[in-house]
Amino acid sequence: MAMALVNSTETKDAExxxxxxxxxxxxxxxxxxxxxATKFAIxxxxxxxxxxTKGAASLEEAxxxxxTERYDCITLDLTLGRDSGVQLISALAAKVPxxxxxxVSGSPAWARTIASSVARVARLNVxxxxxxxxxxxxxxxxxxxxxxxxxxxxx
Length: 155
Fold this sequence. Notes:
- α2 (36-49) crosses α6.
- Strands 2-1-3-6-7 form a five-stranded parallel sheet, with helices on both faces. It has a two-stranded antiparallel sheet with strand order 4-5.
- With 155 residues, it is an alpha/beta fold.
- The relative contact order is 0.15.
- The termini are far apart.
- The chain contains six helices and seven strands.
- The chain has one domain (27-148): Response regulator (Rossmann fold, 3-Layer(aba) Sandwich).
């Protein structure tokens, strides 16, 4: 009986250690998108690639999530209801300066260019601007490449 208890405790300790190590290897993606269907589609795509994904429908929700978790990659819509995704850039620069940033937007080309320029001035790692309607094959390739370029351990 005592041997079974020791083995059970050792098994639980090993499972806990594995869970901790596994979570350290998981890459996190924050999807900032006010359109529910688009947010759902991007989230499911990212989940299938192996990201641990959270979605935010507003600037306030994104800022709250950035305060509580670290993200390796962010997809950011430029139009969030009456707000602009550009308003989130300073929070991204403060909380996740080395995260990969992908703008996903149906905004005009000039707006996407300005947003990318502002993000680069803030020294954010803008890796792509994806236009809406989204080419999900292209987005899959971008997210996969971003994930593969990430370190395999947490910083």
